[in-house]
Amino acid sequence: MLSIICRFILVLLLLAGGSALAQPSESCGEAVSLCVSPPEAGMPLIEGGWVIGVRTDQTEHEGVRLAASNLAEDLTQISLQDDAPDGQAKPFAIIAGSLDRSPTIRSLIESGKLDSSEVEGVWEGFMQAVVEDPLPGIERALVIAGADQRGTIFGLYDLAERAGMSPWHYWADVPPHRQGTLYAAAGSRTDAPEVRYRGIFLNDEEPALGNWARDTFGGLNASFYEKVFDLVLRLKGNYVWPAMWGKAFYDDDPASGALAERMGVVMGTSHHEPLTRAHVEWSRYGEGPWNYDQNPEKLQEFWRGGMERLGEGEALVTIGMRGDGDEAMTEGTAIPLLERIVRDQRKIIAETTGRPAAETPQVWALYKEVQDYYDEGMEVPDDVTLLFADDNWGGIRRLPEEGAERPGGYGVYYHFDYVGGPRNYKWLNVTQIERTWQQMSLAWDRGVDRLWIVNVGDLKPMELPISFFLEQAWAPSEMSRERMDGYAERWAGRMFGGEHAAEIGALLEQSVKFNARRKPELLDAETFDLASGEWDEVALAYRKLAERADTLRTDISEERLAAYDQTVWFPIQAMSNLYDLYRAVAHNRADAEAGLASANKWAEAAEKAFERDKQLTDTYHEEIAGGKWDHMMSQTHIGYTYWQQPEQQAMPELVRVQTEAGRTQAKPNERGGKPSKASSAGRLVIGERPVAISAEAITCRVGGGGAAWSVLPNLGRRGDALGLSPDHGTAIPIKDAPTLTLPLEAERSGELTVRLLFLPAFDTDGAEGLRYAVGLGGGQPKVGGFDLRPDTPLWNEAVASYALPMDTVFEVERGRHDVEIKLLSPSLVLQEVQLFTGEPSPRYLGPPLVQLTKQRDC
């Protein structure tokens, strides 16, 4: 018998004068698209006081039955109803089932009513099809068939989101988009992920997420993880590394592991927690040192316990070993030792599962020094997934050689949050989706399709980048540059409806751009140049965003206000206020040094901003969503003096002065603030003052070496960036290299410095670094380059500044010249070009950008 999960509920009439219902985002002309008007040969999901039922077989996976129940509840909420059913019945149903568990689905296939050939045997594939006369008494059904358990789950949640239920319904308090009527168009559609494992890592979760979870659920237990798993599955993810700061997923609450198995989530452990054992478990149960040379028997016993506890649970098992506390093992650790550790771990895996080790999915994270061992020839079993990592700041360090396939495949471990040098970043979202897209597209193009996982810190407030990361991971081939460019607006539309989507999307893009170019934990009074007015400019620019967010807030409906405040309003207000704080401190110190009474006014402004930071945090904790998110914004972010966070917010030092009456204001110093003149007959004029032009503003672009120039929207620190497409990873000879030509006019003879501002990037082949060339006036180009290495001074400054400046110096004669810029490494991303004949601009962002008009064609 089929179990029936259904609701028959009266549809409430819209109140007169109420706002229009949000529309499903898809056109009704596509197969199985959702429509508010009856399509030809389609079927109703919500209509005339009735909500469709969702049917599954009793033999179905428990995770599928749970998702089916959730879909039924979602449709009830979408239908505007919260009352009892009205008793009506209609001959329509949603039938959901997995090919390996559902007799109903198999019967439909065998009778020729359902063609499952496109999803049969496809990992997590699903189909949605409108089927005529599927069962007695049912005229038409929307059949959701999955190739396996998660395929069916994803098919159910895909329909839920398209109908109007946000994956962020709990974690960002997004209400459903209400529909008085809803129909499914005829036809069938299929989908399946292109990356096998797609997930998130909860990390650095104290004090924010940890305290919130303890208040809300009593800890990071099964009740907590039920909410996490629901989000991940609705975002079409399937993999989780659980929180691990003093926590042990399986040990703290044994129900957590059972819950993951029931819901269909694949569990793992972080890069330094082998064989499912949390790091803290060693302090609870381990004996002796965490040193395999000295203590192999006890470590093997410890790891064996982890695999025995896992039993038949589904996991992607981490192997390998790092030092105690996620540190490198003793300096000079021999590669043979790591290879022995892995051999012994795989023996444990085989013995505890009763199967060859190769039949248990495993991953070895090439994180930090472990990558160096791999580069030096460390052998890794072919069936193990090699997990490459970024530099913890969004730049992928190494990728497989093109065509270097292996049975275990490759993965990438990425970061939206980090604890470590040059500075922690944990408070707000500082990761541009444009940067994520550029780096993960590079990984995809190089064959990384087994595992994508991202460190998301406290989970909130990373709602936007998490959504993007998992959506790109589902279908990297479909996330084109053009699709990425409109993502923030589409995401805002799904969260808040279409009316304000463009404005909200623009606010998110611009604010995160500002956050990325100097993370809040790295800001201080010295970040921007005060004398040239740069501090005033950047603070004003952020304040304008805050004012727009404030103004827009008055137009957001009451039911969506909590979601707006969490994801848009608070992050912008908080960061704008932080700019105001440090700007005031900068003015205070400068005016105090000059003996000006205005220093006291600035001291008061700084204190006011410091207090407002607390008030904003209190608003988030106590007022938004009725105080649901208390503790969530408690990561410290004011008063850093080195990489580690202060224990509490620390007011920057202020100075108060007593001065003669009348001396109240400093005379502004305009140095570096304005270029002499922007252009002359389409040429950049180089005079006494430095000038700068955004990369995308250079219109004379010629491709070469199999690559063309591609604008990367919003990726520059101030404008758009330029990269190459395709990024095939192969070095390009200088004679074939893609070239930008920048016309300029030198007002005087002398030394000219051409500074190229690149996005920090790595030679992912591990060869000789990344290369470019700059030429002047048709002369021989000068080749330059860099080879970033984490934890070096060059890397520290580059990631902190979100830019890597590279200088080329020429002797230039007065008059007209062309600067030619050639990219010899396709992975380079050019943000802007700065030129100067004397000292560089003292401004953090460089001299003001100029626009060239009437540039000649190439």
Summarize the topology.
Elements: E1 2-7, E2 34-35, E3 43-47, E4 50-57, H1 62-78, E5 92-98, H2 103-110, E6 126-135, E7 138-146, H3 149-163, E8 182-184, E9 188-191, E10 197-202, H4 208-217, H5 222-234, E11 239-241, H6 249-252, H7 254-263, E12 266-267, H8 279-285, H9 296-310, E13 317-319, H10 335-353, E14 362-365, H11 369-375, E15 385-389, E16 410-415, H12 433-445, E17 451-457, H13 463-474, H14 481-485, H15 487-496, H16 501-517, H17 534-553, H18 561-593, H19 598-622, E18 679-680, E19 683-686, E20 691-694, E21 701-702, E22 708-712, E23 721-725, E24 739-746, E25 750-758, E26 770-776, E27 782-786, H20 793-801, E28 804-812, E29 815-823, E30 830-836
Parallel strand pairs: 4-5, 5-7, 10-11, 10-17, 11-12, 13-14, 14-15, 15-16, 16-17, 19-24
Antiparallel strand pairs: 1-4, 2-8, 3-4, 3-8, 6-7, 6-9, 18-19, 20-30, 21-24, 22-23, 24-29, 25-28, 25-30, 26-27, 26-29
Helix pairs in contact: 1-3, 5-7, 9-10, 12-13, 15-16, 16-17, 16-18, 17-18, 18-19
Report on this structure.
By secondary structure, this protein is α/β, with parallel strands linked by helices. The chain has four domains: 2-191, Chitobiase/beta-hexosaminidase domain 2-like (Chitobiase, domain 2, 2-Layer Sandwich), CATH 3.30.379.10; 197-480, Alpha-Beta Barrel (TIM Barrel), CATH 3.20.20; 486-669, Methane Monooxygenase Hydroxylase, Chain G, domain 1 (Up-down Bundle); 679-836, Jelly Rolls. 31% of the residues lie in helices and 19% in strands. The strands form five sheets. Strands 1, 2, 3, 4, 5, 6, 7, 8 and 9 form a nine-stranded mixed sheet that branches. An eight-stranded parallel sheet has the order 12-11-10-17-16-15-14-13. α11 (369-375) links the parallel β14 and β15. The termini are far apart. It comes from Parvularcula maris.
